[in-house]
């Protein structure tokens, strides 16, 4: 007999999930994941009939409302694959089925400019979470229908779009700033680096869901451009936060195709 006695998923009194503090009936099948609270605030201005406003003690902000007459949940999951996996597990348990990430990324190809949009077709699993879900040979890929919907919506919004493989890493500073890592992935055509997408794609696939991401380029590791560069700030804040509009459009378009 095995040693594990604790259930696979735990909950607090009243069926409340411990990380998101959400419960059954509060999460829509269509979910947007974000890194920052401001994305939830921007979404709130676009949604109607908001029924859930939840701010957990762990800093996870969640709202559920309607967009184009379709129930949608928007959740600020924070930064990093570990916390994102905790949030995704709970949201899937509570009914989430299609997950689209809104995030930022650092480009590693010279032709990708600040403010461009990167739509990952897949992600290098260079983080620590997904090894608990699948062998390393298991790919973290996005369903082609999700990629197509995001590319179409981003271009309709006037964005310059790059679709391809990205890299997900746990280390914002160390692994993104080491020359050998950057050069290796640049030379094999990887577009950019960030911290959540591989986990989102792999978890969704392992649990029978769909996932994708829209990433705004806030820096380029090989040209030296960056939004947060002291006194030489190149602002892409509007592009970063305005993603919420076209990602909502893509999410609703995917409803009839995938659900």
From TrEMBL:
InterPro entries: Nucleoside_phosphorylase_d (IPR000845), Nucleoside_phosphorylase_sf (IPR035994). GO terms for biological process: nucleoside metabolic process. Residues 30-239 form the Nucleoside phosphorylase domain. Its EC number is 2.4.2.3. One of its GO terms (cellular component) is cytosol. GO terms for molecular function: uridine phosphorylase activity. It catalyses: uridine + phosphate = alpha-D-ribose 1-phosphate + uracil. This is Uridine phosphorylase.
């Amino acid at each position: 007999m095995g040693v594990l006695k604790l259930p696979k998923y735990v909950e607090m009194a009243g069926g409340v999930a411990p990380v998101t503090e959400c419960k059954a009936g509060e999460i829509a099948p269509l979910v947007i994941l974000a890194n920052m609270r401001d994305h939830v605030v921007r979404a709130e201005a676009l949604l109607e009939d908001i029924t859930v406003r939840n701010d957990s003690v762990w800093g996870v902000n969640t709202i559920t409302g309607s967009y184009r007459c379709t129930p949608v949940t928007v959740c600020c999951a924070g930064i990093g694959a570990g916390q994102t996996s905790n949030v995704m597990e709970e949201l899937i348990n509570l009914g989430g089925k299609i997950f689209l990430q809104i995030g930022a990324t650092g480009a590693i190809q010279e032709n990708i400019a600040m403010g461009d949009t990167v739509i990952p077709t897949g992600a290098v699993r260079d983080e620590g979470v997904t090894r608990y879900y699948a062998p390393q040979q298991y790919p973290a890929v996005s369903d082609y229908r999700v990629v197509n919907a995001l590319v179409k919506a981003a271009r309709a919004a006037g964005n310059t779009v790059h679709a391809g493989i990205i890299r997900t890493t746990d280390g914002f500073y160390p692994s993104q700033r080491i020359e050998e890592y950057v050069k290796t992935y640049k030379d094999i055509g990887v577009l950019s680096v960030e911290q959540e997408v591989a986990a989102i794609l792999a978890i969704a696939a392992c649990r029978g869901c769909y996932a994708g991401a829209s990433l705004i380029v806030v820096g380029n590791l090989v040209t030296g451009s960056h939004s947060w560069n002291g006194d030489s700030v190149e602002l892409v804040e509007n592009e970063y936060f305005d993603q919420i509009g076209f990602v909502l459009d893509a999410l609703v378009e995917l409803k009839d195709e995938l659900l």
